[in-house]
Amino acid sequence: MKAARISRAVVLAGGKGRRLGALAKDTQKCLLPIGGVPLIELVLSTLWRVGVREFLILTGHLEHQVRTYVAESSWSSTCSLVVGDAHSTAASLAKLRDRLGEPFFFAHGNVLVQPPQLWKILDIWNRKGLSVLGTVPSSHDLTHALVRHEEEQRIRILKACHEAGQDKKPVHRLPNLGFSLGVGIIEPRVLSWRSAMHQGRAMVEELLKVSSEQGMVYGATVDDFVHIETEADYWRCVETVARDGVSSLPMTV
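Given the sequence above, the corresponding structure tokens read:
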């Protein structure tokens, strides 16, 4: 049987990038240039290479910059912009409920992964037919959701993104724990839409938390990625590209 592809992706491009300091003061963080190319350009290109042909871009902070970028880029015919909820990505997705009737990729505009990593996520989705999150070991300093790896590639979401980043106890370094990378495939039928409207500052993973407790969310370990969250992350990435070219990305920085 031929493996199914996913043709739609939701790209999160509305964050304020507070940890990026002056870099993101007047520039939307997804538009920061890497080797002369905006971050979001690299994200869209990678998703395109695995079969995505329609992009829903959730904007917020400095929305006009993202709108101008899309309008002037080669992606204008494939992208729709939606102004999201300033405090809740999950609530923003809930607004798109009628447009998300089929499984879709989701990705953060400041997280880069190579196509082979997305193929890995897609392969698990094809085999399991349920939501799949890209994960990294808990030794990485991420602020995304804390997850526990269980049997048969299942994961349980333990803490939502904003909670995980505030609680870095040594127990998080255990081998069976990790973090969501903020990239994956979501099956709309298992989303807890109600939680999106009542959880306050809820992130994407909050929508999947209940389903993960029922064994309905899987994890795919991502080995090769770039997550640009701080000024140090950004400048390491820029130095890598200056030395080795954009084709060297992503790599763990």
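The radius of gyration is 17 Å. Try to locate this feature in the token string yourself.
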